[in-house]
Each structure stands twice: as structure tokens, then as C-alpha cells.
């Protein structure tokens, strides 16, 4: 869709690389750190101590080793890992077997599921660690604000995310654009704005993501206008943005966001799972730069998508929703939706009423005005292909902008429930 | 309810001109008494409004407002006690928050601004009540039928 003139990275985690610096600055300063050196707010570059994790895991396997360390040392009872059923699909699985954690190493950009609702089923009985995208964590935080998830029992490692892709679309382009049998694909990576597929014969096939997106085959639409790319709302914010060429593919940039994050990182170091060094100034700068480039692109797409929607009339809206079959799947997957089985949107919605816009949608549009995190799962699951994410955002954007409320990024009460008692006197 | 409906329907049929249907939620303690006052003092006001009495303006849920519109109301008016006078401490503050959200949502949907209105009217303000109703009926008459109303609904 959008074709940025900028040759800079597009798509999910591109390898951070400052274009004009030569020779490139080193990623790190000083020596390997001891556990006690880790501080909240610190920025580090880390990697796994185990060779096979480094080889399998993306960018040095730091995340895998922190999760494995937390599980083996008993900091958490379970870890949510992704079990790949193919290169295009993975399902979240709850495990306490450290081998499963090691087996899940590696990056995946075709993952569209958001584990928030999945997590809600278990969180009251166990302590769980998991790696999250920014929107996953935003959903988890929104659930926590509604007393549905206890954050004390969850440890999260946030991963930088430039966007995810729809599995079936990538499968299609693998065949049609790449000219490769989809079942031969062994691994995928995004680098410098290109989606690279590695086939079983060891060959690499690359296509520009911008070109894929022109045909709407690249990142999902909601990812293209998403405004949170670094998961600073999690306990640790990890990713390969900010890793200079000297550590490219070998190290992960990590920022410690909470005391809990520091504790888990210390555990990984002291337990002999990971090694860390302090990130250098240029590395941190490079990370911020990638982030701001991504955000600029998002802002542009946001305009392209939503400015034309402002002139939409009620008739257009009715038309968009006219195919709804009332299955409720959009609500089931919705991360901030906290009501459970009996909810206002379903209890008062009677298909017999036969309204042009059902009460279900009217209420959901309203409820999501302050709480939509823009994960886009509603559009993904809709059997009638209604562009729901776009519609929810259409209502949410003006409200969230006006209230200056970035859903799921802080502990503010959801504005719909915010009453100012001072005004009463 | 039924007799009100017949009046509206018959006046519509007889003259052929658009007769707006307006649903009005009145808080029991202030605006409902205000409506009473308007009647007792015999202030003239159009008869297009169906009053629903609620204990507090904060009892008005978004569901009520949406149902009113979907069932064919051309405008919905909410009235309550003045800020600070709510008989349940801060009920009308909550109304205000909800109103802001619903208003913004209806605007995004392509509804005109005047179709949903919130006004604080106290028990002694019978005249203001009558004026508010008159004013709204005029405005809605100019706007025409609500775009959310289903075709064929009278
Ligand atoms: S009692 Fe009148 S608004 Fe609450």
C-alpha cells in the first residue's frame, strides 16, 4: 500500500544499522556483566551462552535463554511457547518442560494470534512467563485494569514488532511471487525491508515488503498503522533494533523496564544462561531511530486509511456490516474485552430485532473507543470478511487522540470509567 | 405509550409532513419534576416527546440510547440535575463521561450533532424545560428522519 521512498527498513524487526557511520560504532561498552550490575532502566546487549540456542534462536537467543532460566530456576511454573505446526502457523502452548522452550527458539513474523484471552484461562492458578508483541502486552494490561489478569503472576518479555503477516497470504505469495513451493520453506527473516524465505535446499529468496504491500500481501493493515513498536509496557523490552553490525544476528538489545525484569535478567546471568554487556550510546540511538522511522511510516498509513473514512456516511457503515452473521468471533478474540460469556453486547442483542446495525456492533464500537489496542484479530477471524479492525479504529482514533490515551501502555484507568470526584463539590 | 404512538402516527398520515419522534430521559428528582412544573404552569410545548423517567441521569445506559435510535427515534434527549445537585453524589458526572463517548461515536457514524442532547434542568425550571423541548423539535424537524431509523418504520 504505502511505498516509502525511504530505503530504511520496513517490516518487522530489521537489523538495526546506521546508514552513514563508517566504521560502524561498536554495540557495546565494557566487559561482560555480573548479575548485580543489572539495573531498571538499563540498556544492554545480550546473547545465550548455549551454542545451539544461539544458532536456532533469532539474534543470539537471549529471549529463549531468559525464559529457560526462569523456568529451570523456579521463578515461574510455566512458560507459554509457540508450537509451530508449519512455517506459517503456530499455536500458543503452556509448558513446564524446558526442552519445549528451547525448541521454540527462532523468529516468526506470520503470527497473528494474541495470547491475552488464552492467558486469562490460566493466570489465577500459576505463574507464567511469556514473550509478547507490544499489542499482546497492551491487551494483557487492559485485562489487568479490569481485574481479569494478575500482573504479579505474569512475567513478560516484550519483543519489538514492526508488524505481522497473514499466513495464508504469505503462503499464496510464496507460490505466486517467490515461485517456491510453500512446504519447502524452512525459515523466514525480515532484513532491510525484505522478506527472506529460506528453503530446505538452503537457498534464500527475497522480496521487498513494500512491493508485497502494494498488493496488500505484506504486513496486516492494522500493523501498518500501529503506533507502538517497542514493548516498553512489558517487564523487558527486547529486539534487534539497535544492534550494530558487530553483533548483528548474534545479540539482542534489551531494555529493563521493571524491577521484575531486572530480577529475571539477573537470574539468567547468575544461572549461566545468558551473557550481557552494556549497550553503547550509538546503539541506543540507532534503536530509537529505527523506532521513529517505523512510527513515521505508521502515521502516514494511518492518514491514508482513515482520512478517506471521515466522509463515510451511515449508509456506507450499514453496507460494511450487512454481511455480519452474528457469530461473535470478533468478541471472543478481542484482547481488551473483559466481560466474559454474559456481556452487554450479547445479552441485549437479539437477531430477531433485525436492525440495520445490530446492538452488538453498536455496543462494541462504544466499548472499544477507549480500549481498542488495534491488534487486528477481529478482521482476521471474521468469517464474513468485514474490515472490523478498521471500523473499530475509526471510532477509537478520535477519542484516544483527544484523551491522549495510548491504550495498554500505562496504568491509567480506562477513560470510560474515569469520573472526576473533585468536580462534584 | 400506545396512545402517544397513535397520535404521532395519525398526525403524520393526515398532513404528510415529517413529525419527529423524540425520546427524552428525565431524572426523577430534577428534570421530571421540571416537566411536571412545565405542565402545571401550562407552558406550551410540542407533543413529540416521549418521556422516560429514570431515577438518575446516570441510569441511562448506552444501550437505551442506541435502542431508541434503532427503534426509530429521531433524537434522544437526556436531562438530569445540575452538576453538584445529583441525588446520588456524582451520577451526573458519570452521565457526562458516557455522553461524551456516545456523542463522539454517533458523530463518527455520520449522525448529526443535534440528535443527541444533554441538558441539566432542575425541578424549578419548568420554563427552561418547555423551551428546550420546543427548540429541539424545531431542530430535528429541520434535520429530517434519523439515518439510523430503519426504512418503513413510522
Ligand atoms: S439524581 Fe438527578 S442526575 Fe442523578
TrEMBL record, chain A:
EC number of this enzyme: 1.17.98.3
According to UniProt, the reaction catalysed is:
oxidized coenzyme F420-(gamma-L-Glu)(n) + formate + 2 H(+) = reduced coenzyme F420-(gamma-L-Glu)(n) + CO2
Key word Ribosomal protein present: no
What lineage does UniProt assign to this protein's organism? Archaea, Methanobacteriati, Methanobacteriota, Stenosarchaea group, Methanomicrobia
Keywords on this record? Iron, Iron-sulfur, Metal-binding, Oxidoreductase, Zinc
* Residue numbers spanned by region Disordered: 1-34
Instruction: From the Swiss-Prot or TrEMBL record, give the protein name.
Output: formate dehydrogenase (coenzyme F420)
| Boundaries of every 4Fe-4S ferredoxin-type domain copy | 315-344, 363-392
Q: Which GO terms describe its molecular function?
A: formate dehydrogenase (coenzyme F420) activity; iron-sulfur cluster binding; metal ion binding; oxidoreductase activity, acting on CH or CH2 groups, with an iron-sulfur protein as acceptor
Q: What class of enzyme is it?
A: oxidoreductase
Gene source species: Methanimicrococcus blatticola
- Per the record, the domain of life is Archaea
Pfam families under this entry?
A: Fer4_8, FrhB_FdhB_C, FrhB_FdhB_N
Q: Give the signal peptide range.
A: none
Q: Which InterPro entries match?
A: 4Fe4S_Fe-S-bd, 4Fe4S_Fe_S_CS, Co_F420_Hydgase/DH_bsu_N, FRHB/FDHB/HCAR-like, FrhB_FdhB_C, Helical_ferredxn
Enumerate the transmembrane spans.
none
UniProtKB/TrEMBL annotation, chain B:
| Pfam families (alphabetical) | FlpD
Q: Which segments constitute the F420-non-reducing hydrogenase iron-sulfur subunit D domain?
A: 22-144
Keyword hit for tRNA processing: no
Q: Which GO terms describe its molecular function?
A: iron-sulfur cluster binding; metal ion binding; oxidoreductase activity
InterPro entries with a match to the protein in the record: MvhD/FlpD (IPR003813)
Give the UniProt keywords, A-Z: Iron, Iron-sulfur, Metal-binding, Oxidoreductase
Keyword check for Glycosyltransferase, yes or no: no
State what protein this is by name.
F420-non-reducing hydrogenase subunit D
Natural source organism: Methanimicrococcus blatticola
Amino acid at each position: 500500500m504505502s511505498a516509502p521512498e525511504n530505503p530504511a527498513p520496513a517490516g518487522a524487526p530489521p537489523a538495526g544499522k546506521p546508514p552513514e557511520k563508517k566504521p560502524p560504532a561498536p554495540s557495546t561498552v565494557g566487559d561482560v556483566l555480573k548479575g548485580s550490575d543489572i539495573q531498571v532502566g538499563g540498556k544492554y546487549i545480550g546473547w545465550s551462552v548455549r551454542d545451539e540456542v544461539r544458532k536456532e534462536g533469532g539474534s543470539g537467543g537471549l529471549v529463549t535463554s531468559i525464559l529457560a532460566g526462569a523456568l529451570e530456576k523456579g521463578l515461574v511454573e510455566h512458560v507459554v511457547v509457540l508450537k509451530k505446526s508449519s512455517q506459517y502457523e503456530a499455536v500458543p502452548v503452556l509448558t513446564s518442560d524446558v526442552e519445549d522452550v528451547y525448541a521454540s527458539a527462532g523468529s516468526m513474523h506470520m503470527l497473528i494470534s494474541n495470547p491475552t484471552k488464552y492467558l486469562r484461562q490460566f493466570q489465577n492458578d500459576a505463574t507464567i512467563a511469556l514473550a509478547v508483541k507490544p499489542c499482546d502486552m497492551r491487551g494483557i494490561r487492559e485485562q489487568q485494569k479490569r481485574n481479569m489478569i494478575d500482573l504479579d503472576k505474569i512475567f513478560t518479555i516484550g519483543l519489538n514488532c514492526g508488524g505481522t503477516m497473514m499466513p495464508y497470504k504469505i503462503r499464496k505469495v510464496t507460490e505466486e511471487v517467490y515461485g517456491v513451493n510453500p512446504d519447502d520453506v524452512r525459515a523466514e527473516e525480515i532484513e532491510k525491508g525484505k522478506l527472506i524465505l529460506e528453503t530446505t535446499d538452503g537457498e534464500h529468496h527475497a522480496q521487498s515488503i513494500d512491493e508485497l504491500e502494494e498488493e496488500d500481501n505484506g504486513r496486516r493493515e492494522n500493523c501498518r498503522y500501529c503506533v507502538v513498536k517497542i514493548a516498553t509496557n512489558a517487564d523487558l523490552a527486547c529486539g534487534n533494533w539497535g544492534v550494530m553490525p558487530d553483533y548483528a544476528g548474534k545479540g539482542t538489545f534489551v531494555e529493563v523496564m521493571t524491577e521484575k525484569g531486572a530480577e529475571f535478567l539477573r537470574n539468567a546471568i547468575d544461572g549461566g544462561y545468558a551473557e550481557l554487556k552494556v549497550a553503547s550510546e550509538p546503539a541506543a540511538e540507532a534503536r530509537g531511530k529505527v523506532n521513529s522511522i517505523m512510527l513515521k511510516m505508521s502515521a502516514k498509513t494511518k492518514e491514508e486509511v482513515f482520512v478517506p473514512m471521515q466522509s463515510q456516511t451511515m449508509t456506507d457503515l450499514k453496507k460494511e456490516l450487512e454481511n455480519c452473521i452474528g457469530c461473535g468471533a470478533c468478541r471472543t478474540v478481542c484482547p481488551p474485552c473483559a466481560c466474559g460469556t454474559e456481556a452487554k453486547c450479547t445479552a441485549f442483542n437479539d437477531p430477531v430485532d433485525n436492525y440495520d446495525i445490530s446492538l452488538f456492533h453498536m455496543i462494541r464500537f462504544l466499548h472499544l473507543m477507549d480500549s481498542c489496542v488495534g491488534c487486528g484479530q477481529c478482521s482476521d477471524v471474521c468469517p464474513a470478511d468485514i474490515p472490523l479492525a478498521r471500523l473499530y479504529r475509526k471510532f477509537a482514533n478520535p477519542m484516544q487522540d483527544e484523551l491522549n490515551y495510548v491504550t495498554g501502555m500505562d496504568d491509567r484507568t480506562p477513560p470510560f470509567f474515569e469520573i472526576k470526584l473533585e468536580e462534584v463539590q | 405509550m400506545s396512545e402517544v404512538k397513535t397520535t404521532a402516527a395519525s398526525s403524520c398520515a393526515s398532513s404528510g409532513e415529517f413529525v419527529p419522534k423524540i425520546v427524552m430521559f428525565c431524572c426523577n428528582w430534577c428534570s421530571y419534576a421540571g416537566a411536571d412544573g412545565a405542565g402545571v404552569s401550562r407552558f406550551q410545548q410540542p407533543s413529540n416527546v416521549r418521556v422516560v423517567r429514570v431515577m438518575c441521569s446516570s441510569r441511562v445506559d448506552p444501550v437505551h440510547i442506541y435502542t431508541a435510535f434503532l427503534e426509530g427515534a429521531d433524537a434522544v434527549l437526556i436531562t438530569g440535575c445540575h452538576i453538584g445537585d445529583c441525588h446520588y453524589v456524582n451520577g451526573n458526572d458519570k452521565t457526562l463521561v458516557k455522553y461524551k463517548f456516545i456523542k463522539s461515536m454517533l458523530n463518527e457514524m455520520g449522525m448529526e450533532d443535534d440528535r443527541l442532547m444533554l441538558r441539566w434542568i432542575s425541578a424549578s425550571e419548568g420554563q427552561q424545560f418547555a423551551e428546550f423541548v420546543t427548540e429541539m423539535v424545531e431542530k430535528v424537524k429541520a434535520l429530517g428522519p434519523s439515518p439510523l431509523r430503519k426504512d418503513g418504520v413510522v
